[in-house]
Write the structure tokens for this entry.
Amino acid sequence: MDYQIKPLSDKLGAEINGLDLRVPMDAETTTTINNAFVDAVILVFRDQELTAQQFFDAAQQLGEPMDQHLSQYKVPECPMVSYVSNQERSNDGKRKLLGKAWHTDHSFQPEPPKATLLHGVELPKRGGDTWFANMRLAYEELSPTLKQRIEGLEAIHAYRESRDYLTKEEREAEALTDEEERAKNIVHPVIRTHEVTGTKAIYINPLRIKRFIGLNSEESADLIDELTMHATSDNFTYPHSWQQGDVIIWDNRQAMHRVEHNYDFAEKRLMHRIILKGGKPK
Ligand code: OGA
Ligand code: MN
């Protein structure tokens, strides 16, 4: 297949034109695509027309799909594929809009997914961009002082229903010792070394980190703010404006992302979603 890869920005991202994901990739293409993926942090495959099953078959060429725990969001004809929709409502009738704040996916798991894939099935006419932050570049450009402060630091990640940042009250509601936190929750390093490339990235999730080992909740909140502000500045981010047919894969080991719900809510925004197995962050 004759395809082209070109950068989407000087921060991160590459787009691939002319590759039909319904056709199995040969070994050479798989290698090229996987190399481009870990290098660019996100890849956008243009002009894909895929059923959920075809999307799933394509994803299997890039990794091993994982079950997604929220059963109410599974696509019935292909349950390894979930959907992300702006049409969902909570019991109180409020619209449930996921992914508004910067995060990396499922970091509360002992082995979080290495990658997430989204296929834009129905898109608003404008807006609804997904923003990405290059956490590898953000690490490289960190001040020596901050680099030193997070060297060897570990973070406590805990699952919560909420998709908002933790408040001070929430952080303090449950005061556990470091050892109790290790037993109850998941602890990951703040500097993560990439399994494939050996490069380092800042690995934080402002939605799920309760605090850092050895730091109290206030010190932790300040440090999370400082790292998030740095990593999500214009120097390291790229907003992806979706086109019909886009399939995106992002590397959760070296990216944070968020979606901007800045479109007309009368319009539907529907994505199909797959996550790929990853290792324990080290
Ligand atoms: C996700 C997510 C963002 C989007 O699926 O994990 O954060 O643009 N989605 O819908
Ligand atoms: Mn997400």
